[in-house]
UniProtKB/TrEMBL annotation:
The keyword Manganese does not apply. Keywords: ATP-binding, Kinase, Membrane, Nucleotide-binding, Transferase, Transmembrane, Transmembrane helix. PROSITE patterns: PIPK. Residues 294-304 have a biased composition (Pro residues). It comes from Apodospora peruviana. This is PIPK domain-containing protein. GO terms for molecular function: 1-phosphatidylinositol-4-phosphate 5-kinase activity; ATP binding. The chain crosses the membrane at residues 34-53. SUPFAM superfamilies: SAICAR synthase-like (SSF56104). Residues 276-311 are annotated as: Disordered. GO terms for biological process: phosphatidylinositol phosphate biosynthetic process.
Amino acid sequence: MGRQESIARSISQAITSAKTNGDHVRPKSRSSSALAWILAVFSAFFSLYQLTLRKIRPADFAKLRRNHWEVTDDAYVDSFQPADGASKGEEALHAIGDMGFSGSTFYSTADQKYLVKSVPRHSEHSFFRDDLLTPYVEYMASHPRSLLVRICDFLCLSGPSLGRALGLAPSHHIVMDNIMYGREQAKKRGEAEWESWDLKPTSYFYPERDIADGALTSQATKDQLADEFHDKIILSQEQADEFFSSLEADTKLLAEHNAVDYSLFLVRMKVPQDTGAERTSSTEAAQEADLVPSDPPSVPPGPPSWRTGVGSPDGKHIFRAAILDFFWAKHKIQPIFMTILISIWNVLTGHGHMSITTTPDEYRERFLKMCHEYVEVQAE
């Protein structure tokens, strides 16, 4: 079994072997036999890729799923089982990316409802666990229309491991909503490919782009920097007001806990146009219903929302949006070290701060300014 398949199996087992009441659990397969227990511990330590994972604060995430997002335990666990009709040995999770700019691995469940992202940096997973997790859980319970991505579980290594010590497999993973859910169904229906952008303020100093005009870095590396959206998000005044209200509240929470470098993940779906007759509101609603899945994960609120899809008033597109990657905090050791290095560099070059070394309030200001610039309000 390869590296990606072993990591995927570790994640699936942590989800499917857990008790559904949200209590702290251990793998069901542990034998009462002392010899079997010793062999299991020995095997877990010397495993290079398939690490034994456990859930962090499982009761809190279970409460969010059940009470606020109306995801049943059975439905959630089913997403981490192999798809119906899957061939023998096929994994429940499929790798969709490996070793991105952050060093993360990415997996999708077979039904496309959830993504799993590794959080390899200690500064990031310790920040989420120790500083942001409690405020995040409380905030998401009271803000159903938040644009912060919905995190459904947080997994970590349950004990010492040779694979972790050698850096061969990530020790922490987050399970989150897949904002691209429904794209595969749209492809099968022959609809236009969905477009997506990972947006951050581009006015910051990016060494990969700005030193020697990017000549010292490969194009593949530069392609992993923030995208640029060369268009507008067309919204009604009511839609825009709700969008900015959520952005203001969400980024206020992040700034209060020293988070920077988060991004707005934007999805745009093209609405098939009627031929001939002028569009009506009922036709528009029907078209939106075709594009937006009837069973999206982690609902309420139901459609339309920025998680399921918001239709533009010109009838041309449906938009989704979520705030991602809010794990970089200025008070952690690695960010502090990076800030010192860039400050010294700026004495010599005057390039200015990076998105990971600026202040939380300044990053929030530029982030909100970017979002406002992308929106165009259509008069009704």
